[in-house]
Amino acid sequence: xxxxxxxxxxxxxxxxxxxxxxxxxxxxxxxxxxxxxxxxxxxxxxxxxxxxxxxxxxxxxxxxxxxxxxxxxxxxxxxxxxxxxxxxxxxxxxxxxxxxxxxxxxxxxxxxxxxxxxxxxxxxxxxxxxxxxxxxxxxxxxxxxxxxxxxxxxxxxxxxxxxxxxxxxxxxxxxxxxxxxxxxxxxxxxxxxxxxxxxxxxxxxxxxxxxxxxxxxxxxxxxxxxxxxxxxxxxxxxxxxxxxxxxxxxxxxxxxxxxxxxxxxxxxxxxxxxxxxxxxxxxxxxxxxxxxxxxxxxxxxx
Amino acid sequence: xxxxxxxxxxxxxxxxxxxxxxxxxxxxxxxxxxxxxxxxxxxxxxxxxxxxxxxxxxxxxxxxxxxxxxxxxxxxxxxxxxxxxxxxxxxxxxxxxxxxxxxxxxxxxxxxxxxxxxxxxxxxxxxxxxxxxxxxxxxxxxxxxxxxxxxxxxxxxxxxxxxxxxxxxxxxxxxxxxxxxxxxxxxxxxxxxxxxxxxxxxxxxxxxxxxxxxxxxxxxxxxxxxxxxxxxxxxxxxxxxxxxxxxxxxxxxxxxxxxxxxxxxxxxxxxxxxxxxxxxxxxxxxxxxxxxxxxxxxxxxxxxxx
Lengths: 302, 306
Fold this sequence. Notes:
The complex is a heterodimer of chains A (about 300) and B (about 300).
Chain A: H1 25-31, H2 33-50, H3 52-55, H4 92-128, H5 130-145, H6 148-158, H7 163-190, H8 193-200, H9 205-242, H10 253-259, H11 269-296
Chain B: H1 2-29, H2 34-39, H3 45-55, H4 61-73, H5 87-122, H6 127-141, H7 144-158, H8 170-200, H9 203-211, H10 215-243, H11 247-253, H12 258-268, H13 271-299
């Protein structure tokens, strides 16, 4: 599939001609090996997050007396502490498992909010046109001029970081590309004959939106709903690493790495394990989202 | 072409205006009292009020914005609260390191990404293709600070080839640039691959092969020239983004770039520096976008803008 020209709105799924091929997207997805790998990864991360209290061998907040060496350094992985301990003698495996809850929660929430905002903005701009379109699209242009991380840091500093604030901040920073894609798709969908016909037959706006426009967007939203989590998880990790994300003692993958920075050269497992967790989560959602995009995008020709 | 250029320029200016508004609002909302910060801790209430009036901080918000805008047009970004210098000077001192890291980062992105993309395109559909693309995904999904920290661990600590961080010689530049390159290389690989796949399908490539040209020659002479377009556009975008500073990599390696400047300013609530930094960042992004958009017709004369 050729990449769309940069600087123009990205349409995740081109104008589709659904009728004959629709039923095979699931089959195409299953044939996509990387998508299955992604799915497995997502399931693993979800299980870790949901069942953390059951899976964790220790209490993530408990600072063990024997969790540090005599000099007060973290312990490397052993049979008692499978991932080793952190700078306060807490079991790293348990912290990583509980960190999955936080990081995943923030990632999913933030992406959900971003998709919602992007959907509203994109549909409003693409369907209602006029000054609404101009204002909203200029706004998205302005928002894209700010590097996401800088804006997120600034916002988080204003708003006193906490789990929910972080999710909100990430959503505020990430909605833009979703809005662009939705806008592009709504633009083309709203022009199509069946929508015009519905309007001519007397259907009012809410009905047109709900019955005709939104269903066309479903596959796009599915793709963004998964792909987006990949970047929101990364953003959360970066924010927590910089100290403006989820605050300690709540464990989050980026936060664990942040706390461990001064010891890291002597205790690399404190970076390797949470880092691997971030990678697995982000990669899995990425693969899943891309596989969804490929199998849903019927205009693609390999 | 010219009308398009003019329109894009006007649009860019509009975006910059919007950026200044949002930046101003952000600074306005920051929970700090500039007057008190300048006055210092032991100042009396009267002194703080005096300073507040002097700085015009008690005027209504739109008036403050207008005078802010006026100062911007004169190139005055204000004075830092934390350091007693003009923001201009601070930003200027950060430009060189930021540019170095940006260029070096792009170099590694190209070095890692483009050959990978070419190989994947030539061997598309095979295991090589899948492996390369999966690696590209891994690169894109990996958190940059983890990559950076691991690079430090393996190449600066275990095997001390490179320094642990900081700024100075070319050796200090290598690891941060590789960190950037590994993460961004994935994008370049994918873009290169799809561009090449697109070109490889073209008829003139079939003609070249049918003429009997060696496959290598086909690739390098015909395909690459035309597939390079999206890569160049990506470079334009990247320069824009990188010149805004890559906070995370700069923090990990202690690289004195613009990103780190903004980050420290946020921690110190040094509002003028924050605003100046964010403005400069957005400026670079907008210019980068503009250049990327304008490069298309230069490289591909078939593209015509009304």
